[in-house]
Amino acid sequence: MARRPQPGESGDNAAVLRIPPATGPIAAASALAFLLGAALPRPVLAHGGSVPPAPDAGAFLVDWSFDPLVWLPALVALLLWRYGIRKVRREHPGHPVARHRTVSWTLGVLAIVVALDSGIERYDTTLFSVHMVQHLMLTLVAPPLLLYAGPITLILQASSPETRRRWILPFLHSRVLRVLSFPVVAWILFAAVMWGSHFSPLFDISLENEWVHRLEHALFLTAALLFWWPVVGPDPSPWRMTPAVKVLYVGLQMPQNTFLALAIYMASTPLYAHYVTTIRSWGPTPLEDQQAAGGIMWLGGDFAFLTMVILLVYAWMRHEERRTVGEDRRLEAERAAIREREVALAARLAAERGDPGDAARG
Q1: For the chain, does the N or the C end have fewer beta carbons within 10 angstroms?
Q2: Where are the alpha helices (DSSP H) in 142-271?
Q3: Is 18 helix (H, G, I), strand (E, B) or coil?
Q4: pLDDT digits (tens, 9 = 90+) for 103-146
Q5: Structural domain boundaries of the chain?
Q6: What is the chain's alpha carbon radius of gyration, rounded to the nearest angstrom?
C-alpha cells in the first residue's frame, strides 16, 4: 500500500523523499493544480487503493478496465464516423470517403482506448515508465491518426448547407480557434503543456486524483490535436503553411522533446513523491523507473518526430514534382497556343498578299 511520510520522519527514506524544485513550471498549470488539489479529494492511488502485482506481457494485453468514460466516447466516435461515411456515400456517390481515412480514424480511436483502458492504464500510477508510454500514445500516436482521417472534411461533406453555414463554418472561422490554431501558438502550447505537466504540481496531483488525471489526459490530447492539425490530413485549417515550413514546424519540436526527456532522465533524485511513496516489492527503484521513462520519451518521441519529418519531406518532394509537371503542362499549352497563332498569322498574311500557295503551305 502507498503511504505518506510522517512529520519528523528521518533516515534514508527522508533523504530519498527530498523532491527537487520544479525547473520550468507553467504558472497557469501550477495555479490550476493547487486549486484542484485543494478542492478535490485525494485518494492514495488514482485507480484503486492497492498496488497491482508485478506485470507480465499478458497483463498489458488482457487486463482491461472497461471504463465507460473511455469506451462510450470511443464507440460514439466510431458510430458517428460510420454514419458520416454512409451519408456521404448516399448524397455524394461520386466522392465517397476513402478507405484509408476510415482505417486511420479507427486506429486513432483504438490508440486512445489502449492508452486509457488497457493494462497501461492499470500501471500508469505505479510505474512512471508505463505512464510515459501512455502520454506518448495520447500526444504522438492518436492525434496524427485522427487528423489524417480528416474528421472536419467528413463533417463538412455530411452536413447540410444550412448546418455548414450556421454552425460549422462560424466555428472554424471563430477568433478563438484562429488564435489557438495559429502555428506559433499551437507549437508553444504543445511544448508548454509537456513541460508544465511534468514540472509542476499538476503531475503529482493527477497521480493521486482520478479526475485531475482525466483532465491531464484531455489537456494532452487537445494540445496535440492543435499542434498536428496544420500538418497532418486533408482538413482545412485557418492557417496555411508551405511544405518547407511544415518540416521546420515539426522538426523544431524534436529538440524540445529531447531536452525535456533528458531533464527527466538525468535528474539525480525522483521528481514525483507519488512514485516514491508507492511501496511495491517488485520492479525498478523509483529513480530507475524515472530514468526509463526519460529514455522512453527521448527515443520514442524523437522517433515519432523524425518519422513525421521524413514523411513531410517526402510529401514536399511529391508536391514539387506535381508543381513541376503542372508548370511543364502550362508551358507546353502556351507554346502550342503560340504555334497556332503563328500559323493563323502566316495564313492571314498569305491571304492578304493573294498568294494561295503560301496560304496552303501555311
Answers
A1: N
A2: 142-148, 151-158, 161-163, 169-172, 175-181, 183-198, 201-208, 210-228, 243-251, 253-265
A3: coil
A4: 999 999 999 999 999 989 888 889 999 999 999 999 999 999 99
A5: 56-326
A6: 28
